[in-house]
Amino acid sequence: MASNFAFLHEKFPELAELGLLAERYLHADPPSCLMKAGLLCEGMIRVMLAQDGIPLPERCDAVERINILQRRDVLPPDVTSAFHLLRKARNRAAHEGTAPPEGKTRILLQITHSLCGWFFQTYGDAAYRPQAFVPPEAAGAPPARPTDAGRDEALADQAVARAGQAAALPGEERRRRAAEAAGARRVSEAETRYLIDEQLRKVGWEADSENLRHARGVRPQAGRNLAIAEWPTDAATGSRGYADYALFAGTRLLGLIEAKAAHKDIPAVLDHQCKDYARHIRAEHLPHVVGEWRGFRVPFLFAANGRPYLRQHEESSGIWFQDVRSPAHAPQALHGWMSPAGLEELLERDTDQDNRRLAALPRDFLTDPDGLNLRDYQLRAIEAAERAVREGAQRALLAMATGTGKTRTVLGLMYRFLKSGRFRRMLFLVDRHALGTQALEVFRDVRLEELHPLSEIYSISGLTDRAIERETRVHVATVQGMVKRILYSEGSDRMPAVSDYDLIIVDEAHRGYILDREMSDEEQLYRDQRDYQSKYREVIDYFQAVKIGLTATPALQTTRIFGPPVFSYSYREAVIDGFLADHDAPHQLRTTLSEQGIHYKPGDTVTILDPRSGEVADSALLEDELDFEVDDFNKSVINENFNREILREIARDIDPEDAASGKTLIYAVDDRHADMIVRILKEIYADELMDTDAVMKITGSIGNRRNIDEAIRRFKHERLPSIVVTVDLLTTGIDVPEITRLVFLRRVKSRILFEQMLGRATRLCPAIAKSHFEIYDAVGIYDVLEPVTSMRPVVSNPATTLDQLLDGLRVMEDPAHILDQINQILARLQRRRHGMDAEARRHFADLTGHSPEDFAEQVRDLPPRAAKELLLSRREGIALLEEAGAGGPRPIVLSDTPDALTAHTRGYGRDNLRPDDYLESFARFVRERRNEIAALDIICTRPSDLGRDSLKSLRLALEREGFTERQLNSALSQLSNREIAADIISLVRCYAVHAELLDHEERIRRAVARLKQAHTFSRAEEKWIDRMEKYLLNESVLSVRTFDESPAFRERGGFAALDRLFQHRLESLVHELNGYLYDDGGLAA
Fold it and tell me: Domain Helicase ATP-binding, which positions (predicted)?
């Protein structure tokens, strides 16, 4: 008979010969058959890599070669699993000289044949259609002895050599052909069972559908977790009433599995065969039954066809599961199998009872001053998350500003969940090792009940723990680690089960992308940023668990995964409530070059740096002008004189040896730029006889993970370094409260990234009496991040920017004009996207929720007016495209043009105004908006009626317009040459009704002194008056409600108790005190 592999001969004759040899040895020498089949599969993998010109790392074994193709989406998931299946079978045959029974060897040969069909469609002839496998006959005698292994390997080498000379297909086309061929691949029910055996074994079941069968006498045993094949029932449906697998944890029957061929849809199998089997368990097997629910004697039912879960083909992929104990439990597709322990825990779980325990659990430990000592907003965040969980939400998002204690909040939440039994095992997922280390420190150091930290109450597994023990209650892991364990687990005998965790908490949940070079060791896991986002989502979706995300800056993709936030607490609110530091008006530094740019004329010679090789060379004479603006500085052109002038000016304000003044974080463009900054600063401070160890670079290039963690630890906990230069490594998630200065020598156009950068300095630090932080802006970052206000139509012009095209689009109404403008924008977008670097693509996806390619496609598919709205709503992301060049690292111009500092000013408010203009705009706002904002009118006319909520609302309204208490006082101080610290009430009254401007503390102390002079208080009463004064110094507003709302008063009995102490005069005393507070010479109108 003809070989099943003959179709390969035309294009891959060497591979066809290996297939023929495998067939010949099937009956007489199964180990040799599997070795030939495995070598054939390995040969196909090597041919794929060679034909597509994919470079390989220096050390690259068979597992890694398969993984490389999988990461590029060339190998669909089920094809990947099949290749690994053959790889393992070949290894066992080669190293142990054994093979499974002939029936299994035949199945493996059949799988090899189906893989060859897929391979030939993808890399040979796309028009080929797979043929049925015909088992080889036993009559054909094999060669007298196995063929020489070296000759067989030579065949594979010849196929690889020829493939290396073939033209490679574009990546997208190759992936398309691979996916189509995978859909056409013939997968038998026998192969499905073989794959399911392997999958079950990896999550803790003993599974072998050939040997662990009921017909072979295999029965449940205590201490073993058996998946027994062909379990008989009294059902009349299916294969004579035999369930494909019965799952036993010890002697308890917990589940049934029905396996179908890969081309069959599977949800209906649950409703028919599986349920029929579960109702008709034989009488002799009743001792294994753990209960009966609505006639079902097995609680958990599964149906599968071996294909990994695909959202686009949900009905024909994944593992379909139903808990039949309640009619409210709908069937659902899982991404993997449940473990024996997972099924046992699910059986024991009573969610309704656990929710009741959670609701009844006391909250005292959350506010214990010696323990968590959580604030009001943190308690509200916990309440919101618990409410969502009790109401059945599977996903929830908590949005809390950087520095507001997300980790402590979630620690309280985790402890309540664990103590109530609502969740039994949690995965705390981070995307950077440093964030995981930071979380583990909190879990180890923060005391909960009876002064015990979480790590002493419950078992916690750390970042290096791959396998979790049954007693583990919290596991801290990185996204990268879980990607390896879940998506690239074929090199291992174990992988996580979907039931391993019942709660996943995702820290920094906005981070669905690679943020910095710390991940350089892990980046080979991802093809590009879109691939990272996809795998990030796959890890989160994999587990059958409730997911709670934590973020400071919800991005579009964040809400797509977790939904809109169930609780939000913004940076503005935190500053107003006194929990975060505000920043003063930014220092704006300008030099001759930053104002005028760097320009070269035709005929000039410029020095060029090749960023790939690091080589420096002089260019030929320029034929055209070459112009650089400040946006290009340190990216396209490097001028050390500019950096030196800026750093010299900044160094005048920074004493690196003065611990009381705090620490400084400088943002550089890239690693090369960071090195330059460190060198210049060391030279400047050496001249001033200061310790140059105060300056350090912390980027992903400084060494391995241990070196990076040690550098971050020193920055956080030691006196030196006090000045750190970074690129992206410290943009998010690292807490160093001592940071009081941020220096921007790098321009970014992503508001989200900018806010994250600012977040590094927002934490209060009582140890150094930190009240605010300073920003030094040398690259006009505030100008870039200002909203566009000029709105004028533009004509079609190659020189027109995307920004101008969007301005024109905004004012257009005619659909034809809108469509024409959109086409221009799309054309410009398509050109620009090719030059976007990884950072730009990352920020674009963050701001728009899509890659540039997907975003353009989405715009193109919309009607003109809807497309217009979408483009204008994503304007900030589109602005990033202006930065994109021609693709790949451009040569960098090294400029030695002299430079000099021209200005060091402060820019106030949203428009970077001078102090006098800023105060005038504030006065105008107060006058013009007084009748629109109720709190403004109350402050002006009856200030004693002002409540805490009204004041907070007013401060938020003012901050939205750029008027902050810090900047208003700073502007006044700069004009008057004296330190001013007035509160917002005094500032408003000063500019609205010309009241006397008093410092906050002076106003409070004056009012309290007048109250004491007007009354004779007992010693106990005077002590409480002093406490009211202390409260006012922090809060500005005191009312009758305060005594029942503030813990400082509420814990002593609240208003009722204090009113008795003051002989029922407390309300009138509060009213009198408020009158003194605002009796400041102002005119009420």
Answer: 387-572
C-beta of residue 579 within 8 angstroms of C-beta of residue 404: yes
Between 864 and 106, name the one with better pLDDT.
Answer: 106
pLDDT at 1053 > cutoff 80:
yes
Question: Residues for the chain: how many in total?
Answer: 1085
Q: If you average pLDDT over each of 321-335, 490-504, 619-633, which comes out highest? A: 321-335
Q: 588-782: same fold as 352-576? A: yes
The span from the CA of 778 to the CA of 744, in Å, is: 6
Q: Which of 420, 423, 391, 428 is nearest to 549 (CA)?
A: 428
Phi-psi region of 688 (alpha: psi -120 to 50; beta: other; left: phi over 0): alpha
Cβ neighbours around 979 below 10 Å, total: 10
- Architecture per CATH, domain 352-576, reads as 3-Layer(aba) Sandwich (3.40)
What tokens were used for 717?
A: 């906990």
- DSSP H or E segment with residue 71: helix 62-71
**Mean predicted confidence (pLDDT) in 39-53:** 93
Q: Give the single-character DSSP code of 170.
A: P
Q: Which of 200, 193, 168, 169 is nearest to 243 (CA)?
A: 193
CA distance 582 to 331: 51
Give residues with Cβ within 8 angstroms of 6, minimum separation 6. Answer: 16, 20
**DSSP secondary structure, 547-616, as one string:** EEEEESS--HHHHHHH-S-SEEE-HHHHHHTTSBPEEPSPEEEEEHHHHH-EEE-TT---EEE-TTT--E
CB 832 within 8 A of CB 802: yes
Reported CATH class of domain 588-782: alpha beta
Beta-carbon-side half-sphere exposure of residue 873 (alpha carbons within 13 Å): 11
Tokens representing 15 are 């591979």
The residue whose two tokens read 């603006």 is 629
Q: Which of 485, 585, 505, 590 has the alpha carbon at shortest distance from 550? A: 505
- Assess whether pLDDT exceeds 50 at residue 636: yes
Check residue 667 and give its pLDDT.
Answer: 93
Domain ranges across the chain: 6-184, 191-339, 352-576, 588-782, 914-1085
Asked whether 915 and 906 are in contact (CB, 8 A), the reply is: yes
Each residue of 359-408: pLDDT tens digit?
A: 999 998 898 888 899 999 999 999 999 999 999 999 999 999 888 989 89
How far from 769 is each of 660, 740, 764, 766, 851, CA to CA, in Å? Answer: 8, 11, 8, 5, 44
Average pLDDT over residues 745-755: 75
Closest CA to 983 of 583, 580, 585, 578: 578
pTM: 0.74
The whole-number pLDDT of residue 1085 equals: 40
CB atoms within 10 A of CB 61: 10
Q: How far apart are CA 674 and CA 668, in angstroms?
A: 5
State phi, psi for 367 to the nearest 5 degrees: -110, 10
Per-residue burial over 317-352, b = 16 or more CB atoms within 10 Å of its CB, e = otherwise: bbbbbbbbbeeeeebebbbbbbbbbbbbbbbebeee
Cα gap 455→443, rounded to integer Å: 6
Q: 318, 335 in Cβ contact below 8 A? A: yes
pLDDT of residue 786: 46
* pLDDT value of residue 796: 37
Q: How far is CA 771 from CA 406, 718, 812, 963, in A?
A: 21, 21, 47, 17
The tens digit of pLDDT for each residue in 900-918 reads 999 888 888 877 788 888 8
Say if residues 398 and 548 touch (Cβ distance below 8 Å).
yes
Q: Which among 1067, 921, 1081 is positioned nearest to 995, based on CA atoms?
A: 1081
**pLDDT tens-digit readout, 918-972:** 899 899 888 888 888 888 888 888 887 788 888 888 888 888 888 988 899 889 9
d(CA 571, CA 403): 9
